[in-house]
Design brief:
409 residues, alpha/beta, Aconitase, Domain 2, Aconitase, domain 3, five-stranded parallel sheet, four-stranded parallel sheet, 17 strands, 32% helix, globular
Length: 409
C-alpha cells in the first residue's frame, strides 16, 4: 500500500516505481515517445541501463558486426546520455545481464517496486521486491511519470518443506514446481516461495527460483527477507550506508508475510521427493528427473496436453520411454539470468574439472556479468572450463534468446 498513489473504481491502482531497469531492445521506442511528446524522464536517477541482449560474447574489440544489433546498442547509449540515465556500457566491467547486474550493484533493494521491459524481472523478487516485466509502452510511462497502472495480482504461496536431497539445486526446485502446476498454473498470481528448502538456498539460488516464476505463468515471484538477504546487500555500490543502512535494515526486516496471512492459493511440495530435473520437450512444464524417461503421450488423459506432448516429441525427434541419460546433446550452454552467476559457474566447474567435452559437442560458458567473469578468472574457473574444451565468453544474454550471434543454427 505504501506504493499506491491512488486506486480507481475499476480496481486498477497507480503504483509508484522505485527502480526501473532498461536495456537496448525494449527501450528505443519508449525514449522516442518521450522525445516526440516533448517530455523528460521524471526521475532519471531511478533508472539504470545496460546493453545485454544484442552484445557479442566473443571478441568485442571490433564492435558489433550485426548492423541492427549495433544500432540498438548505440541508440541506448545516445538515449541514456541525452536523458541523464546511468548506463553500464558494453566496455564497462560492470556490464552484464540486467537481472544479474541489478542485484550485484545493489540497485534493486528489499521492499522496492522494480520493473524492466523484460519478462525475467521477477528475478529481483528474491530480495523481497515486487518485481515484474513490462512492455515498451509501459517503459515509456515509467520514464515519464515514475508510476504504472496495475491491477493487484492474486497471492499464491508455494511451500517447499524439508532439506533438499544431495545434488538437487534451485533450478531443480523451480522446474519441479512448473512441472507440478504447469506453465499457466501461476497466471494472475504473485507467488511467494516459502519453506525450509527455500530458506536454505543462497541468495543466488533464490534468484534462480524467482527468475523462473514467469515460466510458471506468474506475474511475480518473491521470497521473504531474512539475514541472508540483508548480508547480501552489505557494501553493494548502490545500497545505503552508515545511518541510512541501519534504517534500511529495520525497514527490510518487515518484508515478511504476517503469521496466518491468507493466500488465494496454496501449493506444497516435499523437498525429499525432488530430484535433478531436465526438460525433454518444448515447454518448461515438460520436465522429468534426469534418471527418468521421455513420457508417453498415450498415458496422458488430457487431450490438449496429449496433443502438445505429441507435437513436442515430433519437434525434438524423440521416442516415448527413451531414458533421458541415453539422449545425446549437441550444444551445452552455461549462462543466462537464471544460472550465470559465480555460484553457478563454480558448481559447473566442479563437475567438468578433469574431464573433457565429448567429440562433436559445442560447449560454451557465458558469465552473467563482467564482475562475475573477473571473479571466475581470479578463481581459475576459466582455465577449468577451457581445459575441458569449453569456450569462455564475454557477458551477455547469449543463447537464451539468440539476438546476437550465439545461435543454434
Amino acid at each position: 500500500d505504501a506504493h499506491v498513489v491512488e486506486t480507481g473504481d475499476s480496481g486498477v491502482s497507480l503504483l509508484y516505481i522505485d527502480r526501473h531497469l532498461v536495456h537496448e531492445v525494449t527501450s528505443p521506442q519508449a525514449f522516442e515517445g518521450l522525445r516526440l511528446a516533448g517530455r523528460s524522464v521524471r526521475r532519471p536517477e531511478l533508472t539504470f541501463a545496460v546493453p545485454d541482449h544484442n552484445v557479442p560474447t566473443t571478441d568485442r574489440s571490433g564492435g558489433i558486426s550485426d548492423p541492427v544489433s549495433a544500432m540498438q546498442v548505440e541508440t541506448l547509449d545516445r538515449n541514456c546520455a541525452e536523458f541523464g540515465i546511468t548506463e553500464f556500457k558494453m566496455d564497462d566491467l560492470r556490464q552484464g545481464i540486467v537481472h544479474v547486474i541489478g542485484p550485484e550493484q545493489g540497485i534493486a533493494l528489499p521492499g522496492m517496486t522494480v520493473v524492466c521491459g523484460d519478462s525475467h524481472t521477477s528475478t529481483h523478487g528474491a530480495f523481497g521486491c515486487l518485481a515484474f516485466g513490462i512492455g515498451t509502452s509501459e517503459v515509456e510511462h515509467v520514464l515519464a511519470t515514475q508510476t504504472l497502472p496495475q491491477r493487484k495480482p492474486k497471492a499464491m504461496r508455494m511451500t517447499v518443506d524439508g532439506p533438499l536431497p544431495p545434488g538437487v539445486t534451485a533450478k531443480d526446485i523451480i522446474l519441479a514446481i512448473i512441472g507440478e502446476i504447469g506453465t499457466a498454473g501461476g497466471t494472475g498470481y504473485a507467488i511467494e516461495f516459502a519453506g525450509e528448502a527455500i530458506g536454505d538456498l543462497s541468495m543466488e539460488g533464490r534468484m534462480t527460483v524467482c527468475n523462473m516464476a514467469i515460466e510458471a505463468g506468474a506475474r511475480a515471484g518473491m521470497v521473504a527477507v531474512d539475514d541472508k538477504t540483508i548480508d547480501y546487500f552489505r557494501d553493494r555500490p548502490y545500497a545505503p550506508s552508515g545511518e541510512a543502512w541501519e534504517a534500511a535494515v529495520a525497514y527490510w526486516r518487515g518484508m515478511v508475510s504476517d503469521p496466518g496471512a491468507a493466500f488465494d492459493a496454496e501449493v506444497a511440495l516435499d523437498a525429499a521427493d525432488l530430484a535433478p530435473e531436465v526438460t525433454w520437450g518444448t515447454s518448461p512444464e515438460m520436465t522429468v528427473p534426469v534418471t527418468g524417461a521421455v513420457p508417453d503421450p498415450a498415458a496422458e488423459t488430457d487431450p490438449v496436453k496429449r496433443s502438445a506432448m505429441e507435437s513436442a516429441l515430433a519437434y525434438m525427434a524423440l521416442e516415448p520411454n527413451t531414458p533421458m541419460r541415453e539422449i545425446a546433446v549437441d550444444v551445452v550452454f552455461i549462462g543466462s539470468c537464471t544460472n550465470g552467476r559465480i555460484e553457478d559457474l563454480r558448481a559447473a566447474a566442479a563437475v567438468v574439472d578433469g574431464k573433457h567435452v565429448a567429440e562433436g559437442v559445442q560447449a560454451l560458458v557465458v558469465p552473467g556479468s563482467g564482475l562475475v567473469k573477473a571473479q571466475a578468472e581470479e578463481e581459475g574457473l576459466d582455465r577449468v572450463f577451457t581445459e575441458a574444451g569449453f569456450e569462455w565468453r564475454e557477458p551477455g544474454c547469449s543463447m537464451c534468446l539468440a539476438m546476437n550471434d550465439d545461435r543454434l543454427a
